[in-house]
Design a protein that fits this description.
There is one protein chain. The chain has 188 residues and is an alpha+beta fold. Among the domains are: 82 residues, Dodecin subunit-like, CATH 3.30.1660; 44 residues, no CATH class. The chain contains six helices and four strands; from the N terminus they run H-E-E-H-E-E-H-H-H-H. The longest helix has 43 residues. The chain is rod-shaped and about 120 Å long.
Length: 188
């Protein structure tokens, strides 16, 4: 019980007499605040307020690295940063990101253009084979029509007086009948 009263007395004396806040800077440029508590405020809020006022006096913001309670005092290790410098760094980072995206887009366009050119070259290279295949196909079709058109002509002539000429032609030609071939031979 005596010990509690002694601690209370020390805290009371410290808060009445030693209400000062100390701010210092270490070798790495990191600032250090040690603040006691007052009658109506906590040591943490006093330390934060002091750190914030130090950085605000320089026109910047605060970045707290670490903070902890050290006995009756609250200690904060922090750095001040300049808003303008941080915005400029952020802008430079965004510009660099846009430049990278633009470079990637240009590279994709270059690759797509190369692929399109390769496809055009391949299409042009294979054109003689395609044209030869088309000619050969036309020649085969012409030969086939030359062979079957007389048969369709005779069937059409013999079925001219029938009530349903298409049905009659279909019966005369048999299973090889094709309305497409019949129309092609008729238009030839």
């Amino acid at each position: 019980m005596k010990r509690q009263y002694l601690l209370f007395a020390i805290a009371l004396v410290t808060s009445l007499v030693g209400c000062s806040t100390t701010t210092s800077q270490d070798a790495l440029g990191q600032r250090y605040v040690s603040a006691p508590g007052g009658w109506n405020s906590s040591p943490r809020s006093n330390a934060r307020a002091e750190a914030n006022s130090v950085c605000s006096a320089n026109g910047g913001g605060i970045q707290i690295d670490r903070e902890f309670q050290n006995g009756l005092k609250y200690e904060i290790y922090f750095r001040c940063f300049d808003y303008a410098a941080s915005l400029a760094a952020k802008r430079r980072e965004e510009d660099a990101k846009r430049a990278r995206e633009l470079a990637q887009e240009r590279e994709q366009q270059r690759i797509a253009e190369q692929e399109r050119k390769a496809q055009e070259d391949e299409w042009e290279r294979t054109r003689p084979q395609r044209e030869a295949a088309e000619r050969e196909s036309r020649i085969r079709e012409q030969a086939r029509l030359t062979a079957i058109c007389p048969m369709y002509y005779l069937a059409r002539q013999s079925c001219a007086s029938a009530p349903n000429p298409n049905y009659c032609i279909n019966i005369r030609i048999g299973k090889n009948y094709s309305s497409w071939d019949d129309q092609t031979c008729f238009n030839k």
